[in-house]
């Protein structure tokens, strides 16, 4: 019996009357005649069980004494089946039963005994009451199954949700946590229960729960959102997240807090930011990155008297190499030059490639001679002949130097001065360095530097 699924009831109630005398079945059908009752009949226990397999029966009226399989055995088989174990049974008998027989009937699952002949004024109300009880019980079981399905579905959604989900009581303590937030905070689900949300909230800084915007939003019945919040995991890791805190309806006295991990988004944003300020060929700062870094240094240290030197480097002979040997060799040469520059740069110096064969280097120095020594070192290093793809490659570099604050304190002013000094070095024969001085300042700048 267990293998047959329940069939839904379309309309009305289904009654099964079991009696080995056909005339008794006809009599029962007449007594139980109602438009909303559908009567099934069986003349044996075997036939009754077959009908129970193929129909959803609400009530069984079962004769006790039948040849072959009696009513008690049918009742025991019904109670042993998941399908029919809750179906009410009324035993029908033509003789008064002994006390033991009555007890056996109730032990088999009977809800009542009726003696033949039947009084319709007693039979129909009794059947009606049992059918109403059965209908209510079936509806309750159906609601219970629906509730279990809904609970299982909700649990599955919460278990598999990528977002962290918390239910936080109005006192700020966590009532519920799903696995995603458990993994994010590195705390077990059970370990999160009862813990104040503020124990994990790093930003916005909230010293007192009842003074927080989260709590005030909850009291107003509004959803409070924070797009740049930071949580601190149990291991101290700072996690960029977005928070959405929405009050629960009814008498829950709590809010649901949805947590979206923004770590990957922030990482991608940082990567894009890095790409935007980095020269893809050499890995040095590009023009934008150099400008941002140097302006940050100059703005931060505007009040100090630190002597700085801006070196503007322009390669000598690069165009010839690029045109005659090809762009691949030219790119390799630029990469090699950037490596030489990085060897000379010290902690705190700012190095960048701002054009095709133009490099800049901001130095912290104690005197002008220190900048001159580094410039001479760079000229000597770059002048070394190199083998690139089996070809001899030789380069030179002309360097202009502008000192700050003497030549100015803004990047644009320093760049214009260093650029003018670099052209003076080229006019003097290349592979040299020149400081920007009064003599150069009296001449028109050959190549103004425009940053914006």
TrEMBL record:
GO terms for cellular component: plasma membrane. It is found in: Cell inner membrane. SMART domains: GGDEF (SM00267), PAS (SM00091), REC (SM00448). Residues 150-185 form the PAS domain. Its cofactor is Mg(2+). InterPro entries: Biofilm_reg_signaling, CheY-like_superfamily, GGDEF_dom, Nucleotide_cyclase, PAS, PAS-like_dom_sf, PAS_4, Rev_trsase/Diguanyl_cyclase. It holds the Pfam family PAS_4. Its main location: membrane. GO terms for biological process: phosphorelay signal transduction system. One of its GO terms (molecular function) is kinase activity. Keywords: Kinase, Phosphoprotein, Transferase. It comes from the Bacteria. Residues 14-131 form the Response regulatory domain. The modification 4-aspartylphosphate is found at residue 63. Residues 306-438 form the GGDEF domain. This is Diguanylate cyclase. It comes from Pseudomonas lundensis.
């Amino acid at each position: 019996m267990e293998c047959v699924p329940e069939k839904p009831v379309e309309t009305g109630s289904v009654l099964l009357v079991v009696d080995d005398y056909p005339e008794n079945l006809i009599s029962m059908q007449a007594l139980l005649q109602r438009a909303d009752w559908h009567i099934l009949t069986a003349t044996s226990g075997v036939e009754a069980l077959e009908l129970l397999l193929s129909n959803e029966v609400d009530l069984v009226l079962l004769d006790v004494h039948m040849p072959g399989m009696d009513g008690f055995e049918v009742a025991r088989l019904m109670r042993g089946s998941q399908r029919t174990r809750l179906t009410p049974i009324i035993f029908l008998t033509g003789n008064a039963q002994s006390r033991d027989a009555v007890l056996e009937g109730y032990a088999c699952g009977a809800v009542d005994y009726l003696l033949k002949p039947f009084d319709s004024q007693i039979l129909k109300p009794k059947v009606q009451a049992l059918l109403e009880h059965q209908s209510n019980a079936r509806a309750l079981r159906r609601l219970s199954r629906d509730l279990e399905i809904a609970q299982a579905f909700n649990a599955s959604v919460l278990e598999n949700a990528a977002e962290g989900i918390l239910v936080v009581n109005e006192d700020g303590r966590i009532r519920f946590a799903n696995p995603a937030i458990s993994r994010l905070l590195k705390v077990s689900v059970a370990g999160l229960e009862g813990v104040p949300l503020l124990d994990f909230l790093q930003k916005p800084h909230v010293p007192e729960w009842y003074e927080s915007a989260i709590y005030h939003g909850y009291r107003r019945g509004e959803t409070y959102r924070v797009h740049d919040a930071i949580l601190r995991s149990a291991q101290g890791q700072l996690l960029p997240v977005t928070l959405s805190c929405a009050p629960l309806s009814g008498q829950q006295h709590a809010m649901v807090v949805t947590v979206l991990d923004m770590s990957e988004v922030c990482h991608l944003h940082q990567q894009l930011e890095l790409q935007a300020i980095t020269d893809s060929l050499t890995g040095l700062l590009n023009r934008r990155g150099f400008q941002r870094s140097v302006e940050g240094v100059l703005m931060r240290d505007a009040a100090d008297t630190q002597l700085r030197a801006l070196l503007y480097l322009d390669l000598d002979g690069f165009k010839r190499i690029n045109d005659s040997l090809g762009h691949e060799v030219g790119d390799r040469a630029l990469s090699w030059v950037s490596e030489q520059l990085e060897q000379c740069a010290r902690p705190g110096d700012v190095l960048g490639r701002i054009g095709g064969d133009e490099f800049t280097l901001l130095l912290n120095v104690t005197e002008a001679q220190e900048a001159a020594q580094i410039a001479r070192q760079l000229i000597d290093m770059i002048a070394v002949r190199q083998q690139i793809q089996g070809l001899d490659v030789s380069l030179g570099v002309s360097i202009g130097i502008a000192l700050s604050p003497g030549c100015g304190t803004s990047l644009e002013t320093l760049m214009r001065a260093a650029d003018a000094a670099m052209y003076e070095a080229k006019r003097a024969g290349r592979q040299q360095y020149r400081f920007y001085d009064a003599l150069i300042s009296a001449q028109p700048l050959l190549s103004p530097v425009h940053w914006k």
